[in-house]
Amino acid sequence: MVVNLITFASTLMKPSAILSSHELLLSELEKHFTIRIVSHDKIGELTANDFSILFIASGGVERMVIQRFEELPRPIYLLADGLHNSLAAALEISAWIKTRGMKSEILHGELSVIIERINKLYQNFDAKRRLRGTKVGVIGSPSHWLVSSSADYLLTKRRWGVEFVDIPLEKVYEIYQRIETDDAISLSEEITAKALAIREGNQTEIRKAVKLYLAVKEICKNENLNAITLSCFKLIDQTETTGCLALSLLNDEGIIAGCEGDLQSVFTLLVAKILIGQEGFMANPSLIHVKQNEVVLAHCTIGMNQTEQFIIRSHFETEKGIAIQGVLPTGEITLFRCGGEALDEYYLSKGTLLENTNYINLCRTQVRVRLETPVTYFLKNPLGNHHILLRGDHANLLHEFMQSNSCKRAE
Predict the structure, then answer these.
(1) Do 184 and 322 fall within a single domain?
(2) Phi-psi category of residue 334: left, alpha or beta, with phi > 0 → left and psi -120 to 50 → alpha
């Protein structure tokens, strides 16, 4: 891990004295990181892929930093050990940055705390770097009922470096029609063998759903996509099947796949995958119990690898095709959603998955969750419908990442 220290020091200090006077700090950092000292006049040699921190080596550098402001890496982190009035300068610089409506952070104090903090900052930086350049296929248009789950393509690319690409459903139909049923037999049988039961549907229906998966997977390969969101309902008439199984299989293979053309949710899934290495369960908050602070989440697809066991069902709303009723492990969870036209808002809560429910009038995979934050968020200030359930407690990590990118938390 390389840490570039963009060094600002008073012109009154001799260059040879700058590093020697901060030997304690620098020698400790070098035990944990590869430290690269970069003079402030060499900032232009760094790229967006270089993890960089401003090293305030002395007082009297405030004007130097301001003059380089447009070139500074974002977010702005200031390292100051306090020697040579460096902390005083860092405080002045940080206050000036805040007057410009931007955030900064001063790294100062115990060396062990500074090192731990740098590791976390690098984790956020690396996640943002891996997000940059990802390509999300919007196959078909968003479902007409998702009136608050879109995103501005240009703003999203500028803020996150994520590119949304429109792909017509006709491409899916074309590939689906030329895939032979025999191509789907082996995988259909494998899925059937793993299932706890088949409630609705049969091998013919499963093969249709597998054919759709093969068609969407071919598009992902041809278009070099990292993720997709699929306009599931619109393709039923043409293919006579649903996208639930296709999305389940794609998620299991590491291709992030979301439902209903929901751009905000597929971005949320992508952030979670990059940051914590885990696929999520995209679901509707279907029942809310304010007194118990609980919510029932439900949807007709989930990655089969996320379940302890699963049942093959039909799609709830249409009673067609193949859906997945997954049984999820109980225990700690995190509920997460990104929102806003620029994907600069987010909801986040820790919680506990209490049980898998089986209401006859809800989508197939259902879980009852007790949250640590008030469920009145859903009734008073929701970012939208779909939310992403993740196994384990990742709230601090996700919060830190979103805050480092100047996002607003909804509560």
Answers:
(1) yes
(2) beta
Distances (CA, A) of 97 to 4, 136, 255: 20, 34, 39
Vertex 361: Cα angle to 357 and 365 (nearest 5)? 40
- pTM for the whole structure: 0.91
Residue 50 lies in a domain: yes
DSSP state letter for 99: H
Residue 48 counted as domain residue: yes
**Does 396 reside within a domain?**
yes
Preceding peptide of 75 cis, ω within 30°: yes
In whole angstroms, give the CA distance from residue 407 to residue 401.
Answer: 9
Same domain, 290 and 249: yes
For residues 97 and 177, membership in a common domain is answered with: no
Per the DSSP assignment, residues forming a β-bridge with 44 are none
> What is the spatial order of strands in the sheet that 227-230 belongs to?
163-167, 135-139, 227-230, 256-259
Same domain, 105 and 149: no
Domain of 343: which CATH number?
A: 3.20.14
The rounded distance, in Å, linking the Cα atoms of 361 and 12 is: 75
If one counts the domains in the chain, the total is: 2
Residue 296 CA to its chain's centroid (Å):
22
Domain that holds residue 50: 2-110
Show pLDDT as tens, one digit a residue, over the chain (411 residues): 999 999 999 987 777 778 889 999 999 999 999 999 999 999 999 998 999 999 999 999 999 999 999 999 988 999 999 999 999 999 999 999 999 888 899 999 999 999 999 999 999 999 999 999 999 999 987 655 554 557 889 999 999 999 999 999 999 999 999 998 888 999 999 999 999 999 998 899 999 999 999 999 999 999 999 999 998 878 888 888 999 999 999 999 999 999 888 999 999 999 999 999 999 999 999 999 999 999 999 999 999 999 999 999 999 988 899 999 999 999 999 999 999 999 999 999 999 999 999 999 999 999 999 999 999 999 999 999 999 999 999 999 999 999 999 899 998
Pair (169, 84) in one structural domain: no
CA atoms within 13 A on the CB side of 245: 31
Candidates 230, 214, 253, 209; CA nearest to 137 is 230
Buried b vs exposed e over 13-36: b needs ≥16 C-beta within 10 Å?
eeeeebeebbeebbeebeebbebe
* 118 assigned to some structural domain: no
**Coil/strand/helix, residue 255:** coil
